[in-house]
Write a sequence for this structure.
């Protein structure tokens, strides 16, 4: 049984999932104890690495913070860190740079040395605007069409574009829009939901759960992306509607490791198995991508840019 441990709770998807009520037998896996390495590099934040150890006791797996590991971090060929770390979180007073390649090596006692590398992509610069349009369903209502125009797409191989939107309030509070209506063939359909009422005649009736993704081969064609953000109220989330001042648009230039991780994480989280469905007997969880050699976790890089659009 492949064990997939993740460190990022998918920041933008709100999903109501069905539960399955059954017990697991003790694992018969022969997977050894491993080092778990998790780090997301981005130029806006100092380098931070979380270390854990996967342990097997009595046929069951647990994990705990790993202290005392030797950590080597390199930027291209320059060594940024080469030390034994007494904490399970290693933070360097250094921000990663765009277009640089980073590698990490973590060793501890008799465990296999975990290794990984990633490249920080340059940012996708963009301009965005807002247009108020009449809601096709509720004629008295008004919805907003956001236009995102990528201005410069770097020639980095395998990068993808992820777009999210947030309701921005006085005092800096943010609540993510959990539905983004769009009508664009270049957007990945993985998280799309069809058959809803059309929000307006520009963005149509298909919405995307939490994010819009444009894969690498479609990026050169994505000269303009229009979408309507829509927020669905869920339990335990209050709505300070009167205090919303703007809409925050965030573009993530995703390196291949982050892109693969988020895609497979979404697939795992949205795999629905119903309790009365006989197929649940054959249910196998989706494997979440990991690029750690001789270990588990993720060592990935992104470049993020955001803009605020004031509401009329």
């Amino acid at each position: 049984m492949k064990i997939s441990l993740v460190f990022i709770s998918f920041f933008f998807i709100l999903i109501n999932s069905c539960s399955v009520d059954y017990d697991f037998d003790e694992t018969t896996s022969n997977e050894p104890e491993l080092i778990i390495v998790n780090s997301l590099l981005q130029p806006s934040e100092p380098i931070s690495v979380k270390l854990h150890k996967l342990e097997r006791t009595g046929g069951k797996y647990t994990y705990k913070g790993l202290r005392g590991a030797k950590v080597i971090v390199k930027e291209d060929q320059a060594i940024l860190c080469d030390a034994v770390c007494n904490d399970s979180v290693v933070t360097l007073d250094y921000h990663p740079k765009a277009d640089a390649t980073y590698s990490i090596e973590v060793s501890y006692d008799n465990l296999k040395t975990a290794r990984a590398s990633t490249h920080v992509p340059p940012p996708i610069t963009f301009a965005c605007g807002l247009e108020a349009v009449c809601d096709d369903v509720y004629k008295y209502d008004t919805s907003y069409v956001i236009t995102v125009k990528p201005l410069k797409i770097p020639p980095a191989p395998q990068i993808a574009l992820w777009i999210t939107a947030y309701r921005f309030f006085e005092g800096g509070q943010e609540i993510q829009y959990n539905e983004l209506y769009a009508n664009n063939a270049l957007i990945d359909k993985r998280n799309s939901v069809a058959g809803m009422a059309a929000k307006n005649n520009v963005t149509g009736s298909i919405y995307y759960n939490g994010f819009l993704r444009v894969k690498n081969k479609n990026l050169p064609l994505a000269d303009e992306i229009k979408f309507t953000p829509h927020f669905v109220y869920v339990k335990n989330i209050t709505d300070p509607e009167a205090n919303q001042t703007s809409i925050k648009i965030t573009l993530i230039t995703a390196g291949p490791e982050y892109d693969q991780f988020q895609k497979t994480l979404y697939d795992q989280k949205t795999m629905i198995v119903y309790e009365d469905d006989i197929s649940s007997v054959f249910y196998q969880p989706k494997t979440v991508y990991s690029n750690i050699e001789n270990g588990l976790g993720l060592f990935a890089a992104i470049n993020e840019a955001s803009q605020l659009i004031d509401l009329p």
